Sequence to fold (247 residues):
Amino acid sequence: MTLFPETVKAGLSESITARAIANGIIGLNTYDIRDFSKDKHRHVDDYIYGGGAGMLMAPDPIVSCFEHVRDSIVEKGGTDKPRVLLMTPVGDAFNQQMAEELSKEEDIVLLCGHYEGIDERAIELIVTDRVSIGDFVLTGGELPAMMIIDAVSRLVPGVLGSDESAFDESFTKGLLEYPQYTRPPEYRGLTVPEVLLSGHHQNIADWRFEQSLERTKQIRPELYEAYIASHEEELKKYMKRTKKSLI
Ligand code: ADE
Fold:
């Protein structure tokens, strides 16, 4: 639900999301909130009670639009109480765990705000989750919605090919990715780490794991601490097997 349906469609119209939509693995329907304005000039916004700069999206076009979306979901055999995500900086921080939960839902409705925001009553009436994609303010919810659709879609079985698999080893989940290389073996004086050319699968897996751990420690110390705290046993076993002291 957006005032800019073409933006959202265009943002997902290439590459993996486009293929998933074309193959019917996921469906994307955009609804123009302006189509639900009862105003002859198709207005959807109004001045703000109490004063202040800018305009606010009025409740009725949004709630009417939602009722139409809900009816379409019910018509195709879905729930009459879908998750409705409001894109807003005043929300829970979106993360991979949320993406995983959402990927299990049959239907998700995303509501994109614009202008200064949305009348609180529309939110109270229809929104189930307020979601922020980060501590910064955008001009509208369309980019956040596209990000969420992208992150959730790639977790839906069949969206990624086996080469692009989203499968996450539980042992390395929560760590940042290790560095990767392709040909040539030497580029502008920089070489590919020897172990990756060795063909020794266990050594390669160990190298990648240690790189992930080290990178996470340097770049995202809070993720590193959380990982260490929740993988004590596995790390002990790992250090025993490799005779390395990692932490
Ligand atoms: N709309 C504007 N800024 C936003 C943000 N950071 N996250 C989600 N929706 C938004």
About this structure: The pocket of adenine is lined by residues 87-89, 132-134, 136-138, 141, 144 (CB under 6 Å). The chain has a mean pLDDT of 96.
